[in-house]
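Tip: read the tokens left to right.
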């Protein structure tokens, strides 16, 4: 991540936090009222009750996460292996949100999967991802809403690279034979970014939300292995992550 891009990225996050804080203060200070004439040319102003309910919603989701590049690819191509850049990763999972006024707080768990055959090798990525988000409804009608928010994620990913042309003789096993057939690497990126959601709320049986997010990896996210010691591991800090997700809301429950 270049220094200038880092400044722009974190400036956006700071401005968003400032905007939702200001919006929260305005909503708390805003008073809806009605006027009643008491018959003696005096007007009494009475406050209207605002909706203070917290609404919980559950959903299932599916989508695509696109990662343009991995620093690991530099190491792979040196050994005449294919890079793992431009990787479209399928995601499927479930989550929940709590809505209060214009604010939405959410959590989501999803599974990641990607598999591709390049030359004589198979590349398979799998793992789990946890998302936490807070959004503010910048535009809302009875049937439609636009949410802007920040999202933080933690991923546990496993990349396997194995040869399609190798043969394993179980009567003549050796450590070198086993290690030469496949590579298994893990990485655990922590990322932060922004999300934009478009939600259709009414006039359909199952409310639908389309969400786009952009994130950057904050931690080192070095590659490791459960089976061997890894040296000269590249860092994935600053990695760009793009996601497009469809969420199908199944039910909701409101506080009394």
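Filled-in amino acids:
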């Amino acid at each position: 991540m270049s220094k200038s891009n880092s400044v722009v990225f974190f400036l956006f996050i700071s401005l968003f936090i400032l905007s939702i804080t200001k919006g929260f203060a305005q909503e708390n200070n805003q008073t809806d009222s009605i006027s009643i004439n008491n018959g003696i040319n005096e007007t009494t102003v009475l406050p209207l009750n605002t909706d203070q309910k917290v609404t919980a919603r559950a959903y299932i989701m599916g989508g695509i996460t696109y990662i343009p590049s991995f620093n690991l690819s530099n190491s792979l191509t040196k050994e005449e292996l294919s890079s793992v850049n431009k990787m479209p990763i399928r995601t499927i999972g479930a989550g929940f949100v709590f809505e209060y006024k214009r604010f939405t707080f959410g959590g989501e768990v999803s599974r990641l999967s990607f598999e591709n055959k390049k030359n004589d090798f198979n590349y398979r990525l799998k793992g789990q991802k946890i998302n936490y988000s807070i959004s503010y409804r910048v535009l809302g009608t009875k049937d439609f809403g636009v949410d802007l928010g920040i999202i933080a994620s933690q991923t546990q990913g496993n990349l396997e690279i194995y040869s399609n042309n190798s043969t394993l003789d179980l009567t003549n096993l050796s450590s070198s034979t086993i290690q030469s057939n496949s590579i298994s690497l893990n990485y655990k990126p922590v990322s932060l970014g922004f999300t934009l959601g478009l939600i259709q709320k009414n006039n359909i049986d199952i409310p639908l939300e389309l969400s786009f997010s952009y994130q950057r990896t904050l931690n080192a996210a070095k590659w490791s292995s459960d089976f061997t010691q890894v040296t000269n591991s590249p860092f994935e800090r600053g990695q760009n992550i793009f996601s497009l997700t469809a969420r199908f809301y199944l039910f909701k429950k409101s506080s009394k």
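The two ends are 47 Å apart (CA to CA). The chain has one domain: 54-164+176-254.
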